[in-house]
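To: structure subgroup
Subject: Chain for Friday's discussion

All,

I'm putting the inputs and outputs inline so they're searchable in the archive.
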Amino acid sequence: MKSAILGLCGGLLLAISAIAGEQPKDAWFVFLDHNSDGGISLSELQAVRYQRFMAFDVNRDNQISTEEASADPQWAERLKRMDDNADGRISLNEFEDRGKSRFAIIDIDGDGQITAHEALNFQRKVRKYGSSKTTIG
């Protein structure tokens, strides 16, 4: 009985170690971790989101319109989900607010850093439930 309990505990420790050592499969975590400290800060996330926003804001009015988003079908769909007031556009402020909300969802412990473990947890939820149910933009 004692050896069975020890065996179960040993197996559990190995499983926890394996989970804790997992890294996100996608390169987005490494890409966003600009200072290579093993975590993604809100400023690191927002810097990349700003670049992405500006790539779609062709006329530089700090808004992504339906027309601008139509260049990419995935973005056109995202625009629809993010456009809470249904005006056919997303302002830079609205977009940044969505980024902050997304960051808060992924940063499970609320310490201001997304760790590899938190990123992996988020990826699993996206695969299980879909991105529209696990993110807000």
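Points worth raising on Friday:
Helices lie at 2-21, 28-32, 42-56, 66-69, 73-82, 92-106, 116-129, 131-134.
The chain has one domain: 24-134.

D.
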